[in-house]
Amino acid sequence: MSIDILIIFIYFIVINIIGLRFSGFKNINDYFLGSRSIPWIIACLSIVATETSTLTFISIPGVAYISGMGFLQIAFGYLAGRIFVAVIMIPKYFDGNIETVYQFIQSGFGISSRKIISIVFHITRILADSTRLFVTAIPLTLLIGWDYKLSIAVIGIATFIYTFYGGLKSIVVVDTVQFFLYIICALIGFYIVSDVMSLPVSSVFSRISESSIKIFYSGLQRGASSLFGSYNIFSGVFLKKPP
Asked: Which residues of the chain have pLDDT under 70?
């Protein structure tokens, strides 16, 4: 067994041990609500890890290399959305003892609205997650030499165990572990690039042109129509959703 396969299986085993170790649910409410005892910092790190999917991690460096750092303007949309959720939505969840957004929709707009939105969400979620699962299998297939079906099966089984048997708390804890893992890997990537170029990290960044690291764009460089066709502060806050 190659060292690559060994590392992958050790990782899968460890995340399932960690996930099941922290599950601790006693009933269905604990299963879906994490016993209402998840520390806020763990929840925040889990959210960041979840929104940064494999598709983002693989594709966005290429986008940044070609078109600059404008993609980061989407983070301002995240900030505005989270303030709205924290100030408006979450208090209503607690006031009405609501567990899901669909219960909130039903209470305000009726059962038909709840069913329609649930169906739309499931269809779009299946399509989006299928794409992300396939993209996750690409590096595994290229590095290990497995068939795509085997790569997808291994990933699916490994994540199914702690998700199904551990509930929400297991998912949040494992997401937090993965957050630190990909941050560490990114730092290792900086070190490798620096080592290959035989330069300190600061000197590596100094070789990048100012236009390539520019973050803020008005979106009006080519007229108002470009507001909807590029990464800019308007589309980042109001329109765009990342891969």
From this structure: 1, 96-99, 218-230, 236-243
User: How is the chain split among helix, strand and coil, in percent rounded to 5?
Assistant: 80, 0, 20
Residue 34 maps to a domain: yes
Domain-embedded: residue 24: yes
Does residue 224 lie within any of the structural domains?
yes
| pTM score over 0.85 | no
Check if the beta carbon of residue 133 is closer than 8 Å to that of residue 124: no
pLDDT at 238: 66
Return the pLDDT at 123.
93
Distance CA 191, CA 187 (A): 6
Q: How many domains does the chain have?
A: 1
Asked, for residue 243, whether it belongs to a domain, the answer is no
CA 12 from chain center: how many Å?
A: 18
Amino acid at 97: N
- Which residues form the domain of 123? 3-238
Predicted pLDDT of residue 119: 92
Q: How far apart are CA 186 and CA 192, in angstroms?
A: 10
The predicted structure's pLDDT at residue 17: 92
Residue type, 242: P
Amino acid at position 78, single letter = Y
Give me the residues paired with residue 223 across strands.
221
CA–CA dist 66, 62 (Å, integer): 6
DSSP string over 188-213? HHHHHHHHHHTS-HHHHHHTS-GGGS
The residue count of the chain comes to 243
pLDDT for the residue numbered 224? 65
Residue among 213, 149, 195, 174 at smallest CA distance from 17: 174
